[in-house]
Amino acid sequence: MKRMLINATQQEELRVALVDGQRLYDLDIESPGHEQKKANIYKGKITRIEPSLEAAFVDYGAERHGFLPLKEIAREYFPANYSAHGRPNIKDVLREGQEVIVQIDKEERGNKGAALTTFISLAGSYLVLMPNNRARVVFPVALKATIVPS
């Protein structure tokens, strides 16, 4: 059973944990003095590609470089002549110095940089715009119920 656990017992920190049964699958910690960067969008530059991690490190203006795993790289960043036979190799997809548009998926924690994605999503009151996704625009279920076909 999926649950959201909220711990607001301390004034200087709010903790939200998402659990599925006994397994923790997401944890967010917010501090009033700390600026929330999750979901922010940045133009970054690939500084290092690490094939053993199947990921790249991106300088997007923060103290630490962000972590961009291969599974979070949109097809738009693959070379035009790229044809994958099996699992793609990150060195064939990206190059150092390449500029990418990234969104923060998970904030920096401890000594780790932020987790990044190139699958940008902009949520509004009535729709979610996802330019690097086949769906492109998604309407909330509540809004779909009110749309009457003509």
UniProtKB/TrEMBL annotation:
Q: Which UniProt keywords apply?
A: Cell inner membrane, Cell membrane, Cytoplasm, Endonuclease, Hydrolase, Magnesium, Membrane, Metal-binding, Nuclease, RNA-binding, rRNA processing, rRNA-binding, tRNA processing, Zinc
An annotated GO cellular component: cytoplasm
Determine if Glycoprotein is one of this entry's keywords: no
Q: Where is the signal peptide?
A: none
- Could you tell me which InterPro entries the record lists for this protein? NA-bd_OB-fold, RNase_E/G, S1_domain
Query: Might you give the EC number(s) for this enzyme?
Result: 3.1.26.12, 3.1.4.-
Look up keyword RNA-binding and say if it applies.
yes
- Biological processes annotated in GO: rRNA processing; tRNA processing
Entries under PROSITE patterns matching the protein: S1
Tell me the ranges covered by the S1 motif domain, including all copies: 39-119
Q: Name one GO molecular function term.
A: metal ion binding
Instruction: Name the source's superkingdom.
Output: Bacteria
- What general EC class does the enzyme of this chain belong to? hydrolase
| Protein name listed in UniProt | Ribonuclease E
Query: Which organism is this protein's natural source?
Result: Salmonella enterica I
